[in-house]
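Running log. JK asked me to keep both predictions on one page so they can be read side by side. First protein, sequence followed by its tokens:
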Amino acid sequence: MSRLIVISNRVSVPKAAGAAGAQGGLAVALNSALREHRGIWFGWSGQETQEFTGHLDMQRNDDVTTATIDLEPQDIDEYYNGYANRTLWPLFHFRIDLTEYNRDFGEGYERVNRRFADSVHPLIEPDDMVWVHDYHLLPLGSMLRAKGVDNRMGLFLHTPWPPTRLLVSLPFHEKLVTSMLEYDVIGFQTTEWLESFLHYVQKELGLKVNLDNSVSYQGRRVVARAFPIGIDHAEFTEAAASEEAQEAHDRLKSSVRGRKLLIGVDRLDYSKGLGERFQSFGRFLTDYPGEAGAVVLLQIAPPSRGDVASYQQIREDLERKTGNINGAHADVGFVPIRYVNRGYPRAQLAGFYRAANIGLVTPLRDGMNLVAKEFVAAQDPEDPGVLILSQFAGAALQLTDALLVNPHSVEHVSEAIRRALDMPLAERQRRHAKLLASVRDFDVIHWRNAFVSALEGKGNNGGRNAEEQATSASIKAA
């Protein structure tokens, strides 16, 4: 078996299940994958150094080897806070109004990708497979090729891929995309993002897209497919059954005093639609005044990217909306919105999910959204909560038995909350059973195996994307 070299912007040192705070989907998924597939996880440590040396900090924790480098303050400002989070992130989430184009950002992005290439190159052995993750490192494969690396290399994008008409607003977009074509496999979360990518390479680069969605480029065949990511269902289910989860469940249930509970768990990010979610909940309280003292929204939103001005504005906006809604609908012993700016261990989150009657997952645009799948996995099958899910989340293409909503429409979301609260037990059980089957059968192990199989050059499952298989299985379950 070939060794696997995983490369991502940040490296999360593995911890015991439930011991970490609110880890992102990438960290949870890759820790799980690397425990079963020998190799190395390489990336930035998250630490600063006054002068970049390329020094590797090698550690082994919980059967996963990590190798990290420190970056200079200028690198972090231009590459991470700049090009990654003020240029690519908003553009890839269709927020061209927030996208900043700055030449220094672009130069910093290329510089740091070269530093990654220089540092990881000595770790790569001839038979290794290289798996690069996300928008931070799109050109890394081409830089490794320039160093003579001819290993099988794949790229997986965890974000959406924007339509061609938006992507062409990015200076040097052709250079960025052609650098991606140095990978052997390019993976996307959904067929929608895959189709957007293929449309770009046909229209802007004039390349041939074959019937199997591979791209012919400089005499090579680049495989492009959808590989929708899942959660580690077995690990999360174990965490949800823990004493810590039960204590969290009981504490939250006790605190709401018999009221119906809605829960949202999101990073503090404009793509998550938190402002629109609060407005929708406020509209629900206005439309159904008899419910004003009978429902509570718990929104957990750990802060992120605090150095970026737009994220500071989000926090201020949510605090203002929380105050306005609570001021209008609260009583002396009750507030309808509990807004919490901190993360929680996964076991506690599982308990919170299980205590909730409704999971509100309403991003304006999302590559996948694993919170939706965690909410489903945490529910009591005998008395499950209802998932309200944005139609613009990648997960909506798999979790078709959720209540799918347009998060831009406060009326639509308000009506979905009313419908969820009124939903009969039999319907809740039926919907949950089908949602759980998709979450269980198309978990992170399935995702990992599908991508690694493609990276190894093995069959393409009869030409069907993993997303198409998941959707087909969901339909059959119905």
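And the second, directly underneath as requested:
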Amino acid sequence: MSRRSVPERWTSLDTDLKRVTRVEAAAMFVSRPLVGLGIALFLIALAALAAGIVTPSGSGLVVLATAFGAYMALNIGANDVANNMGPAVGAKALSMTGAIAIAAICESAGALLGGADVVATISRGIVGPESFQGTEAFTLTMMGGLLGAAIWVNIATWIGAPVSTTHSIVGGVLGAGAASAGLAAVSWGTMAAIASSWVAAPVLGGVIAGLVLAGVNAAILDREDRVTAARMWVPVLIGIMATAFATYLAMKGLGHVVRIGPGRALAIGVPVGILAALASRPFVAERAGEEATLESLFRLPLIVSAAFLSFAHGANDVANAVGPVAAIVGAEAQGAVPSAVAVPRWVMVIGAAGISFGLILFGPRLIRMVGKQITKLNPVRAYCISLAAAVTVIAASWLGLPVSSTHTVIGGIFGVGFYREWRADRKLGRSQQSGKGLAREERRRRKLVRRSHFMTIVAAWAITVPAAALLSALAASVLHWLA
């Protein structure tokens, strides 16, 4: 045996092992989505089984409706929750794992502690119950609306578009109700109020976020002595955020347990904000000693704000999944369309679990898109977006306008990005006038907001209600035909 034969054999073996390793890695990459899909299907089946055990009658319609509700909850977790955590992840204030863990805990806590509300708008406000000929027609309509809305949110997540799950379920119930009872049964006044938020929410969120960023630049970042400015203004900004989120939490979270109007909510938020500002002064004075740490001062309030947003979102938007299920459970138990829809605890548990697992299994893709692919974020910009989202919801609630948290957060991201474009363009214009600037064509190429994402998201928002309505009308028609 020659001396070279052994090394050559080992070299050949190493090459083969590397090929096997590459094949295994490729197989793992391809199978990863299938694992998530398998777990999701198992959770849906488990929810349906639980419904069959818990409900006294074990109604097949309740079991099927629960499966549809679990499917919708998974899609809410995959799509809607990304809006709360995306800015914090994009600003590198939170890792993906940390964001998912905080969101899962806070979403579940919000759903279980603050989500057991009477879901009147979904089950009764869009299509009047008197329009249905019997309990079965009402049940099948709610099921069709739920399934169609869930399918639309699933499609939107697949194409990478964050959409409003509230608008999806509203469109779903509208389409299913129109298919079952006719267009005359739809409450067009309610729909007009909801439609007004399509434009109001993102515009308000974007304008407020841009104005807050302009204020932060003027007060701190553009000053010659940033450290002194930060010591003065960062505690004030923390206090404003604490006020906004305490007010937001009181209205959108605790408001589901105890009715709290905007005035009382603000009376709760202002003292909390003052205490937060005073408590943060020593921390800011210590950490603002070096300019390099200025952005890090915004990380803690950003993380807290993301947790609060998730809690309030869980309390508010879990109804999009469990509202129709609760209405169906009530209808089947009473043998008539219920006058008030109380959400059973087991239904809330399924909704909370579905949102959390949807986030864990499918949420990272949209979190990355929201936080990193629309525009570049840092802790200061993400702070402005979170504050704008809270202020927009508070202002809209005060004015009686229904808004979507998805629209406000995404609008805030675009607002920050377009403000930065405008600011950079002004700087380049001034330098060009002095002979140091870039050519106009070069300035046009330096865009800070991805236009492709902007167009995709706007298009998805525009067709959310019609798309969910059409899919739900089809689903309701099929369910009525099968029944």
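Observation for JK regarding the second prediction: Residues 5-54 form the longest helix (50 residues).
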